[in-house]
Amino acid sequence: MLMNVEKMLMAIDRILAEARKIKTEIYEESAPKPVPGFDEFWKAYPIRARQMDTENSWALYVKETDVPLIMNALKHKIWPVDKKWIPSADRWLAGRRWLDENTKGHHGKYAGCSETIPEKD
Asked: What is the rounded average pLDDT of the residues 76-104?
């Protein structure tokens, strides 16, 4: 009887080891693949904060074909004078803001801000 218990424990160990292996393979396959160009983007973005969040956003939202569009948008973007109106890089990526029109806002200090500032009556 003791022999049967030992065999069962060995079988359970093998099953658990196989399950861990499968879990690791699934995790590695589902992890977002890094898209080249992040370092160039990070250097070009006017605010360098939340780098880890920005790298995660880059991996999640940016396709390789988007990189030239993003870099072109950064080069031609008219940023607000007051940096508090510039979104963090991770939010800029998550919102796909490189597709926004580069228009001037209603007030001088908001010039270049993508949001439309409502006019007061």
From this structure: 86
Where in the sequence is the domain holding 44, given as residue range(s)?
34-121
| 49 and 77 inside one domain | yes
Residue type for position 10: M
pLDDT tens across 104-121, in order?
Answer: 544 433 334 444 444 444
Give residue for tokens 């898209």.
35
Phi, psi of 89 (to 5 degrees): -60, -35
**Three-class SS of 35-55:** CCCHHHHHHHCCCCCCHHHHH
The residue count of the chain comes to 121
Tens-digit pLDDT profile for residues 64-88: 888 999 999 988 888 888 889 999 9
Both 96 and 42 in one domain: the answer is yes
Number of structural domains in the chain: 2
> How many beta carbons lie within 10 A of that of residue 34, not counting itself?
11
**Residue 112 DSSP SS3:** coil
Are 23 and 52 part of one and the same domain?
no
